[in-house]
Amino acid sequence: MPIEELSRLVRSMGIHQDEIALATGVTQPHVSRVLSGGVSPTAKAYRRICAYVVSRKSPISTLRVAQNQELVSAIASIWDGSEEQARALGAVIRSLAPLLTLYKTGDPK
Fold first, then answer.
1. What's the Cα-to-Cα distance from 21 to each of 12, 34, 73, 93, 96, rounded to whole Å?
2. How confident is the model at residue 104 (pLDDT cuts 50, 70, 90)?
3. Of 10, 4, 89, 84, which is closest to residue 52 (Cα–Cα)?
4. CA-CA distance, 97 to 23, in Å (whole number)?
């Protein structure tokens, strides 16, 4: 994805740089450099940010999640039901977004 398209998508979706940083493990200043074109599109951080933004572009329905017994079982086994822990688990799950690209492409990096 070209840098200009990535930046435009981030703005149009209202995604904040802090959210991208938390989800990808890339610092917010580095996210800013990526989105402003100051980082090569072949850089690892650029690929991680792209993967996260693309994953946000195609949300999965609540019904589909609820019907996935493996996911429901995994969450139920570790979630104490609190809002605080729900936010923490959400952040952990979002931080895994870069792995989705690796999984789909078979890239072992």
1. 18, 11, 28, 14, 12
2. low
3. 10
4. 7
Q: Can you tell me the distance from the alpha carbon of 35 to that of 42, in angstroms, rounded to the nearest whole number?
A: 13
Residue found by looking up tokens 């959210």 in the block: 19
Q: CA-CA distance, 106 to 97, in Å (whole number)?
A: 15
Q: How far is CA 61 from CA 37, 67, 89, in A?
A: 33, 10, 18
Single pTM value for the model: 0.53
- CB atoms inside a 10 Å sphere around CB 20: 24
Question: Residue for token digits 């789909």?
Answer: 104
